[in-house]
Amino acid sequence: MVAAFQLAYTLFQPICGWLIDVIGLKMGFLICALIWSVTCLLHAGAGSWLHLALLRFVMGASEAAATPANAKAIGDWFPKKERPVAAGWAGVGFSIGAMLAPPIIYVAHITFGWQGAFLLTGGLGLLWVALWWWGYHSPESHPRLSDEERAFINQDNEAIGEKLPFFTRAESDW
Predict the structure, then answer these.
(1) Could you name the domain of life of the organism this protein comes from (predicted)?
(2) More exposed terminus of the chain, fewer Cβ within 10 Å: N or C?
(3) Considering its fold, how many domains does the chain have in total?
């Protein structure tokens, strides 16, 4: 089960990064979080080890968006000189989540059974998807960001280059 999740997580990180680059952070991460949440809910109905392994694979593939989405959000929202500290605080958030998840899942499992633990986490994921849809804005479209704040964020950002298809091989002059 762990291998199914980890294999997908490993394979899909660059694919999720490409998706986020092509359709944008808000929609790319929303789609992956929605797939993750629905897949989590479906775990409660797994009828065999193969079914569970397939669900774990899909869950790993969709969760793989977290790392590239984090990098994209930091790149969008922070000037270069502040990005290392922002990445450090994001790592703190990941660690806190990793520490809080086991006791929450344990209580859900004891209270509602193993299926209930998956239903709880899937439901929380759907709540997060709704909050993300409603609350996330890029710096360019944020309704409460002043022009001065926007200029500070973008002070040393480079122009976005041409977006290439995922499997495009770069030509070399060597």
Answers:
(1) Bacteria
(2) C
(3) 1
